[in-house]
Write a structure and sequence with these properties.
The complex is a heterotrimer of chains A (444), B (121) and C (513).
Chain A lengths: L5 E4 L3 H12 L5 E4 L15 E3 L8 E2 H14 L3 E3 L3 E5 L4 E6 L3 E6 L2 E4 L3 E3 L15 E3 H11 L1 E2 L3 E5 L3 H12 L3 E7 L8 H8 L6 E3 L1 E7 L6 E6 L12 E4 L2 E4 L3 E3 L2 H6 L3 E2 L4 E2 L12 E3 L10 H28 L7 H7 L10 E7 L2 E5 L2 E3 L6 E8 L3 E10 L2 E11 L5 E6 H5 L6 E7 L2
Parallel strand pairs in A: 1-2, 1-9, 2-5, 9-23, 11-19, 13-14, 13-19, 14-15, 24-31
Antiparallel strand pairs in A: 3-4, 6-7, 7-8, 10-20, 16-17, 17-18, 21-22, 24-26, 25-27, 27-30, 28-29, 28-31
Chain B lengths: L1 E6 L8 E7 L2 E6 L4 H12 L2 E2 L2 E7 L5 E6 L3 E2 L3 H10 L1 E3 L7 E3 L9 E3 L7
Parallel strand pairs in B: 5-8
Antiparallel strand pairs in B: 1-2, 2-3, 4-7, 5-6, 6-10, 9-10
Chain C lengths: L1 E6 L3 H10 L6 E4 L16 E2 L10 H19 L4 E2 L3 E5 L5 H14 L5 E4 H7 L9 E5 L3 E3 L1 H14 L3 E3 L4 E6 L5 E5 L4 E9 L5 H8 L6 E11 L10 E3 L10 E4 L5 E4 L3 E3 L9 H11 L11 E12 L5 E5 L2 E8 L5 H20 L22 H10 L6 E3 L4 E2 H9 L7 H8 L12 H12 L18 E2 L2 H14 L4 H11 L3 E2 L2
Parallel strand pairs in C: 1-2, 1-12, 2-9, 5-14, 12-20
Antiparallel strand pairs in C: 3-8, 4-8, 5-7, 6-7, 10-11, 11-12, 13-16, 13-17, 13-18, 15-16, 19-20, 21-22
The chains are: A alpha/beta (444), B alpha+beta (121), C alpha+beta (513).
C-alpha cells in the first residue's frame, strides 16, 4: 500500500472539506477512506433543502451540498477509497483499513484527520419498556430506507424525539402518504431548528408534544401501538396522562453520539460532555498529528459549520506535516519519531508556550476547542459551544481569568443550536499571564 | 386589525414574529432582529411558499430513486399536488444534478430538478 | 411417517435432535417460529451454571452438573464460543454468611468441583469491583458463559447435517394417538405429521402439548425476566459472573460479562399468565438499575445498549420433567426446563436420547458426522489470515456491521448454512450483525440488501423475525414505479402494446430522457 502524508477517516462533509483544504494548503499526499459506496456521508440521504446558506449563500439539498465538495475532491485529484472500513488508528498514526479489493492494509500516515461523524441513539439505550417488534427505527435509518432505497416503513407514524432528523422525517413520511400522529419530546423544548418545527410539523398540523415520552410499545411481531405520557420535571411519566396511539411505525430521534470507537482505541482523550475528542486551537487531539472535525468532534447543528471546522483541521494537518518534515530536515534527516513530530507540531517552544485553558460554566456546557496555544492560533479563532437549557435575553459572557471581557445579549439560546464566540489573537497575546478563558451564560 | 404570530425561519435564530394585518395587507412586523424577518413575515402571511423535496423513480439507473426538488418555491397549498405529480413520474438514467426531470409541476410554472447524479446501471 | 417428532427447536429440542442424529432413525423437529432459538433459549442469562443451586437429588441438579461437564468437549466439537470465567455468589450481610455454606454443602453433594468459600479480601482480590459491603463469597470456577444462540443453532445444524428434518412455521395444534398406534399431529398451517414417538420440548408451551395427550395435567408458569445489556466498552467491569444470594424466586439479579464481551444485568422474576409476554416493563428495568448496584460498585448501567425480557418455563414443583408420560406411552416430556436449562441442555438431549435408544433399540449410523464448524469468525484473525480469506472471497473485506465488525462474507455464510438465516434476527443470532451498540441502525438496510440478493426475497417480504414482522411493507411512489416498470419493459423491447397497457394502467406521466 502506498504511503500518504494525511489519511482522512470518513468521506462525509467533514472529511471532504478537510481533504479539499489540505490539498489547497499544498499537501499532495492525501487519502480519504470511506466505508460507504459513495462519498458524501449522511448528506446523501438528507434530500431536504436548507444546507449551505452560510457556505454558498444559497439553499441546497444535502446531496447537492455534498456534491459541491465531491466535485472539488475530483477536480483536485484527491485520492479516496470507497467501501473501506478503517479498523484501527494506532497512536503512531498507522491506519489499518479493509476493503474487498485491497484486503486488510496499513498506511503509516504522518497526520490523521478523524471525520467519522456520529450515530443515532438506539431504542435500547433509551430504556423504553415494551415489546421489541418490527416497525421501530431510528429516524436516520428510516430516512435511508425511504430516500435511498425507496421503501416505506409504514403508514401510521409516531415519532419520539424532536431532533432535526425526526422533524425532517415527520414531513418526509407525510409527503409520502403516511399519517404522522405526533412528535413526542421528553424535554420541555425541542432540540431541533425552529425552521424545521415550522416547516415540518406546523405546515402539516402535526402536534409537537413537549415533556412527553413513550412508556409502552405494543405488538409481538409488528408494532401495533405505543403509549405516550407526560413527564414531570424529573422526566418521569406522570400517572393518568397516558394516551395510546395505534401506529405501525415508531421513529426515534433522540440524540446523536459522536462515533469515537477508533479514537478511543487510539488513545485519544475524550470530553465526557461532547463524547468527542478534547482538542486544542488546531483541532488537534492529545496525540500530536491526530486531528478531529465535524460530528465526531461534537454534534453540529448546521453542516456549514462542519465544513468550516473541517477546513481548519485540513489546514492544520498540513502545517503539522510540513513542520514535522522541516524538523526532520533540521535534525539531519533523522527518522521522524513520534516525539520529534510532536515537537515540530508546534510545541517547539513547549517550555515557553502560552497555553490557555477554556472552561464552560453556568449554562455553557462545553467549548471546542478546550485549550489554546496562543502562538499557534490564527488571528481570529472561533470557539463553539452549546447551552444546557433555553435562555431568553441572557448574556454570553467571556472571562479572561476573573475579568469579564465580553458580555453579549442574545434574544434566545437553546440546546439545539450551537453558539460561538470569536477570540482575537492580539487580545490574548497581550495577556501573557492569562490562564483560563471561561464562557458562561449570565442573566444580566 | 388582525395579529399573526409566527416563527421566522430565515436563520437558526428563529425569531418570534408578530405581524399586524389590516385589510389583507401586512402593515407592521415586530420581533425580527434583521430585515429577513420582516420580509419573511410579510410573505408568509400573504403568500406562503415552499421548496418541495422528494425522490423520483429512475429507469435503468444504478439506484432506483433520484432525489429531486422544485427549482424554486411553489405555493404552500400546492405541496400535495406537486407530490402527486412527482410520485407519478419517472426519469431515465443517467441523471445529473440540475436536470429538469418534470417541467411545470402541477401547473405551478416551476420545474422539478434532480439534486444528485445517477449513473446508468 | 417419522420415528421421532420433536416439538420445539429451542435449546432442549435441538439438543435432543443433536443426540438423535447419530442413530438410524427418521427424526423431525416441528417449530412454530421461523427459526431455531426463538423462545426462552434466546432470552436468558447465557450462563453455564456450576450446579450448586438445585436441590440435592433433583433431576435439575444431576443434569446441571452433567451438562456443565459436557460443555468443554461440546464447545470444541460443535465450535461454540464458551469460557469458564467462574462465578461468585456474593454475601453482603454478615448474618447471611451461613447461606454461602449451605450452597457450598449442596454443591459438594451435587458433585460440583472446585467450590471454595472466599473471605472478603479474597473475593475483592479476585473481583475488585465487588461491593464495599462484601463479607464473603462462594467461588465456583467451573461456571462459565456461552453464546446461547450458537449453542442452540450448532446442535440444530449438526442434527440437520445428520439427517434430522426441521419444519418451521409449524405450530402444533393437536396430537392424538391413532388406531395405527402412531401419534398424529396437526399443525396450524394445515400440515399433518405422524410418528412413533413424540418428544415435547415446547418450552413455555410444554404444558399445553403435554395436556393434549395426558389426563395427568401439568402446569407451566411463565416467569418473566427483564435484562439489560451493556456496551462492550464496560464489558470488563467484572470478569466473573456475580450472583447475589438466592431466594425462593431464583438466583436473583446477576451481573456477568458475556462471551462476546458485553456486560449483562438481570433477570427480574415476575410471574405472568401470558406465554408471549416478552415485553420489558418500566418497573422491571427500574428494579434492575436499583438491585444491580448492591453487589457490584459503580455499575455503569448508563451504558445500556438494549433491554429485553425472556420467559422461564417454571413448573410448579421446580424440577425438570423428563421422561415417558405414564398415561401416554411413546410420548416423552421434556418440560419445566427453566434455569439451569441452558447448562443442562446437552445432558437433557443425552438423557432423552438414552430413553429412546433403550425403548426403540436404536443403532448408530456409520456415517454420523460428530463435528460442526461454525461461521468463520473474522474477529481475532491475523492480517495474513484475513487477507487469505478476502482473496478467496472479497465479501470478507466488506464490513456490514460496524459495531461488531461483521463482514458481508459472514452474513452470506449465515444465510446459506444448513437451517440458514432468513430474517434480520436470524442473521443477528448467527453472526452478531446488529447486536452492537447501534442496535442495527447502521447495518439493517445493508443486511436487508444481502438477504434480498442471496435469497431472492423482495424487500417488502423481508422480516425482522418471521411472521408479520415485515420491515418495509411498501415501496414509495407506487404510481411512478409502475410507470418506470412499463417504460423499462418498453426499453427491453417488449411488445409495444404491452408497454402501453401497463403505462396506461399506471396513470402516470413517463418522462423519458
Amino acid at each position: 500500500m502506498k504511503n500518504y502524508d494525511i489519511v482522512i477517516v470518513g468521506g462525509g462533509p467533514a472529511g471532504l472539506a478537510a481533504a479539499v483544504s489540505a490539498k489547497k494548503a499544498g499537501c499532495d499526499s492525501i487519502l480519504i477512506l470511506e466505508r460507504d459506496t459513495e462519498l458524501g456521508g449522511i448528506l446523501n440521504q438528507c434530500i431536504h433543502n436548507g444546507f449551505g446558506l452560510h457556505t454558498f449563500k444559497e439553499e441546497l439539498t444535502g446531496p447537492e451540498y455534498a456534491y459541491r465538495f465531491i466535485q472539488q475532491v475530483l477536480d483536485l485529484g484527491i485520492e479516496y477509497k470507497l467501501g473501506t472500513m478503517v479498523m484501527d488508528v494506532a497512536p503512531d498514526k498507522t491506519v489499518t483499513a479493509m476493503n474487498r479489493e485491497d484486503g486488510m492494509f496499513t498506511i503509516p500516515a504522518k497526520a490523521v484527520i478523524l471525520a467519522m461523524g456520529c450515530r443515532e441513539r438506539p431504542r435500547g439505550a433509551l430504556n423504553i419498556p415494551g415489546f421489541r417488534p418490527a416497525g421501530i427505527f431510528s429516524a436516520g435509518t428510516a430516512q435511508r430506507l425511504v430516500n435511498i432505497e425507496g421503501y416505506m416503513p409504514g403508514k401510521e407514524v409516531v415519532i419520539l424525539g424532536s431532533g432535526d432528523i425526526g422533524l425532517i422525517m415527520a414531513r418526509r413520511m407525510t409527503l409520502e402518504g403516511a399519517k404522522v400522529k405526533c412528535v413526542a419530546e421528553l424535554m420541555p423544548y425541542s432540540g431541533g431548528l425552529k425552521r424545521n418545527i415550522v416547516q415540518c410539523l406546523d405546515d402539516f398540523g402535526i402536534p409537537l408534544k413537549l415533556s412527553h415520552t413513550v412508556i409502552d410499545i405494543e405488538g409481538k411481531e409488528h408494532l401495533t401501538a405505543v403509549t405516550i405520557a407526560e413527564v414531570g420535571p424529573d422526566r418521569k411519566p406522570v400517572p393518568g396522562t397516558e394516551e395510546r396511539y395505534t401506529c405501525d411505525t415508531l421513529l426515534l430521534s433522540c440524540g446523536l453520539i459522536p462515533e469515537n470507537e477508533l479514537s478511543r482505541a487510539a488513545g485519544v482523550e475524550m470530553n465526557p460532555v461532547t463524547s468527542g475528542p478534547i482538542v486544542n486551537e488546531s483541532l488537534e487531539t492529545n496525540i500530536p498529528g491526530v486531528f478531529a472535525c465535524g460530528n465526531v468532534l461534537h454534534v453540529h447543528d448546521l453542516v456549514d459549520y462542519v465544513s468550516e471546522e473541517a477546513t481548519r483541521a485540513g489546514e492544520n494537518a498540513v502545517k503539522y506535516v510540513n513542520g514535522a518534515e522541516a524538523e526532520a530536515g533540521a535534525a539531519g534527516g533523522n527518522a521522524t519519531t513520534g516525539a520529534a513530530q510532536a515537537e515540530a507540531g508546534g510545541n517547539a517552544e513547549a517550555g515557553r508556550a502560552h497555553v490557555i485553558a477554556l472552561a464552560a460554566t453556568d449554562g455553557a456546557r462545553y467549548t471546542v476547542p478546550s485549550t489554546i496555544n496562543v502562538d499557534r492560533m490564527s488571528d481570529l479563532l472561533t470557539v463553539r459551544f452549546r447551552v444546557g437549557d433555553v435562555y431568553k435575553n441572557s448574556f454570553v459572557s467571556v472571562y479572561f481569568d476573573d475579568e469579564r471581557v465580553m458580555h453579549n445579549q442574545k434574544r434566545i439560546m437553546s440546546p439545539g443550536e450551537m453558539e460561538q464566540i470569536v477570540l482575537r489573537k492580539a487580545q490574548l497575546a497581550e495577556r501573557p499571564l492569562l490562564k483560563t478563558i471561561t464562557v458562561k451564560i449570565e442573566n444580566e | 386589525m388582525e395579529k399573526r404570530e409566527l416563527t421566522c425561519i430565515g436563520c437558526p435564530m428563529g425569531c418570534m414574529l408578530t405581524a399586524i394585518i389590516e385589510n389583507g395587507e401586512v402593515t407592521f412586523v415586530e420581533g425580527n432582529t434583521c430585515p429577513k424577518g420582516d420580509i419573511y413575515a410579510r410573505k408568509e402571511v400573504v403568500n406562503p411558499t415552499r421548496i418541495v423535496t422528494s425522490t423520483m423513480c429512475v429507469v435503468g439507473g444504478e439506484k432506483e430513486r433520484v432525489s429531486v426538488k422544485t427549482a424554486s418555491d411553489i405555493p404552500k397549498d400546492k405541496i400535495f399536488d406537486v407530490m402527486r405529480d412527482i410520485d407519478a413520474a419517472s426519469v431515465s438514467a443517467p441523471v445529473s444534478i440540475g436536470d429538469v426531470v418534470l417541467a411545470d409541476v402541477a401547473g405551478t410554472g416551476v420545474d422539478v430538478v434532480a439534486t444528485r447524479n445517477i449513473h446508468c446501471r | 411417517m417419522y420415528d421421532v417428532i420433536i416439538i420445539g427447536a429451542g435449546v432442549s429440542g435441538a439438543a435432543v435432535a443433536w443426540q438423535l442424529g447419530r442413530f438410524n432413525i427418521k427424526t423431525c423437529v416441528l417449530e412454530k417460529c421461523e427459526d431455531v432459538c426463538e423462545g426462552t433459549s434466546k432470552a436468558n442469562s447465557a450462563i453455564i451454571h456450576a450446579g450448586y443451586d438445585a436441590a440435592e437429588g433433583s433431576l435439575m441438579a444431576k443434569l446441571n452438573v452433567r451438562g456443565n461437564e459436557m460443555m468443554d468437549e461440546l464447545s470444541k466439537e460443535l465450535d461454540i464460543p464458551f469460557k469458564r470465567n467462574g462465578s461468585l455468589v456474593v454475601c453482603i450481610h454478615k448474618e447471611e454468611l451461613g447461606g454461602l455454606k449451605d450452597l457450598y454443602d449442596r454443591g459438594i453433594k451435587n458433585g460440583v468441583k472446585g467450590l471454595k468459600i472466599l473471605s472478603r479480601e479474597e473475593a475483592l482480590e479476585l473481583e475488585p469491583n465487588l461491593s464495599e459491603d462484601t463479607v464473603g463469597a462462594l467461588y465456583a470456577p467451573s461456571a462459565g458463559v456461552v453464546c446461547p444462540f450458537e449453542l442452540n443453532i450448532a446442535m440444530a445444524e449438526n442434527a440437520c447435517e445428520n439427517g434430522v428434518e426441521f419444519k418451521f412455521n409449524t405450530e402444533v395444534k393437536d396430537i392424538s394417538k391413532g388406531e395405527d398406534g402412531l401419534w398424529h399431529i396437526k399443525a396450524a398451517n394445515g400440515e399433518e405429521f405422524c410418528a412413533k414417538y413424540v418428544v415435547n420440548a415446547a418450552g413455555v408451551y410444554a404444558d399445553m402439548i403435554h395436556n393434549m395427550v395426558s389426563k395427568d395435567k401439568i402446569r407451566i408458569i411463565q416467569r418473566r425476566g427483564d435484562y439489560c445489556l451493556l456496551d462492550k466498552q464496560v464489558g470488563g467491569h467484572v470478569t466473573h459472573t456475580i450472583f447475589p444470594q438466592p431466594t425462593s424466586l431464583g438466583k436473583g439479579v446477576l451481573i456477568s460479562p458475556t462471551i462476546h464481551g458485553n456486560l449483562i444485568v438481570g433477570p427480574t422474576a415476575v410471574e405472568t399468565d401470558d406465554k408471549e409476554a416478552t415485553n420489558t416493563t418500566a418497573e422491571g428495568i427500574e428494579e434492575l438499575i436499583t438491585k444491580a448496584g448492591s453487589h457490584v460498585r459503580n455499575l455503569p448501567i448508563k451504558n445500556v445498549i438494549t433491554s429485553f425480557a425472556g420467559l422461564r418455563a417454571h413448573e410448579e414443583h421446580h424440577d425438570f420433567i423428563i421422561g415417558e408420560v405414564a398415561d401416554a406411552p411413546c410420548f416423552i416430556d421434556c418440560a419445566g426446563i427453566e434455569s439451569p436449562g441452558l447448562t443442562a441442555s446437552p445432558a437433557i438431549g443425552e438423557m432423552v436420547a438414552g430413553i429412546l435408544k433403550e425403548k426403540m433399540g436404536l443403532t448408530e449410523k456409520s456415517d454420523f458426522v460428530a463435528t460442526r464448524k461454525g461461521i468463520v469468525r473474522t474477529e481475532g484473525l491475523s492480517v495474513a489470515e484475513m487477507n487469505e480469506l478476502i482473496r478467496k472471497n472479497p465479501a470478507y473485506g466488506n464490513i456490514v456491521c460496524r459495531c461488531e465488525m461483521i463482514t458481508e462474507g459472514e452474513i452470506i455464510e449465515a444465510i446459506h448454512r444448513p437451517l440458514g438465516a432468513k430474517s434480520l434476527d436470524g442473521v443477528k443470532r448467527r453472526t452478531r450483525a446488529g447486536m452492537g451498540r447501534c442496535q442495527a441502525g447502521f447495518c439493517s438496510p445493508r443486511t436487508m440488501e444481502i438477504i434480498n440478493r442471496e435469497l431472492s426475497i423482495p424487500y417488502e417480504k423481508i422480516t425482522k423475525s418471521g411472521g408479520a414482522s415485515v420491515i418495509v411493507p411498501t415501496r414509495t411512489k407506487a404510481a411512478g414505479a409502475a410507470g418506470a416498470a412499463a417504460s423499462c419493459a418498453a426499453d427491453a423491447g417488449t411488445q409495444a402494446n404491452l408497454g402501453a397497457a401497463a403505462s396506461k394502467e399506471s396513470d402516470g406521466e413517463v418522462t423519458g430522457a
